[in-house]
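> forwarded from #structure-qc
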């Protein structure tokens, strides 16, 4: 998958899982369209994205 982080042994990238969650507003639809994707997979993808996007506070000069 071109070095992108993937979910388990599936050929689904974390980015794809995030797209799926953003597009499908309920888990039943996700389960119907992606039966191989488990709730834990979604939780792990979200946790990974949160860790990668770890926000940092940047103090700008003159903004004390």
């Amino acid at each position: 998958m071109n070095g992108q982080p993937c979910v388990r042994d599936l050929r689904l990238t974390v980015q794809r899982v995030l797209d799926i969650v953003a597009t499908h507003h309920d888990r039943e639809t996700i389960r119907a369209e992606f039966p191989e994707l488990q709730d834990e997979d979604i939780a792990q993808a979200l946790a990974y994205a949160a860790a990668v996007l770890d926000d940092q506070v940047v103090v700008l000069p003159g903004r004390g």
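QC bot note: The mean pLDDT is 89. The longest helix spans residues 39-52.
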